[in-house]
TrEMBL record:
It comes from Halovulum marinum. Residues 5-66 form the HTH asnC-type domain. One of its GO terms (biological process) is regulation of DNA-templated transcription. This is AsnC family transcriptional regulator. Signal peptide: none annotated. SUPFAM superfamilies: Dimeric alpha+beta barrel (SSF54909), Winged helix' DNA-binding domain (SSF46785).
């Protein structure tokens, strides 16, 4: 169930998604509120699970991770044992930035970041040693046109008046 967010919550979350390293004073000024209410809102948003964690976003190119592959996987096995092995294999591989189970002809898609195609081949060979895969299609991203960690914040009609909870 989605958390009920008011306008101030959305401003705080938007500001944190842009730069969570700001001081509480800077954040409060940016959202047009005082520090104590902003701090209390942040604590409530964390307790509600809206804010999962705070991280630093690194530049992959600056680290030499210039190759981004999208890996489409089809499997002939759909049992719990295979899934557990596959999930463990991708959790153990730091190259895998994202993994999704899909509906449709493709079973899984992975986003993999490596230094170059040779490093991707090493990743691929290690993966197929751990789990059997029916078909793999790998696609190299030629240009990253958009990359964001910021989620769109839903706008919900707010209650007004004395019955507002």
């Amino acid at each position: 169930m989605a958390a009920a967010l008011d306008a101030l919550d959305r401003k705080i979350l938007d500001a944190l998604q842009q730069d969570a390293s700001r001081s509480l004073e800077e954040l409060a000024r940016a959202v047009g509120a005082s520090k104590t209410p902003v701090w209390n809102r942040i604590r409530k948003l964390k307790a509600a699970g809206v804010i999962r964690r705070e991280v630093v976003v690194l530049d992959p190119d600056a680290l030499g991770l210039e190759a981004c592959f999208f890996v489409l996987i089809r499997t002939a096995e759909h049992d719990a044992g295979w899934l557990a092995r596959f999930q463990q294999a991708i959790l153990n591989r730091p190259e895998v930035l994202e993994a999704h189970r899909l509906a449709g002809d493709i079973d899984y898609i992975l986003k993999v970041r490596v230094t170059n195609p040779r490093a991707y081949d090493d990743f691929y060979r290690a993966l197929i040693k751990e789990v059997s895969i029916f078909n793999v299609t790998s696609t190299l991203s030629m240009e990253e046109m958009k990359n964001t960690t910021a989620l769109p914040l839903p706008v919900v009609a707010e209650k007004t008046g004395p019955d507002r909870a």
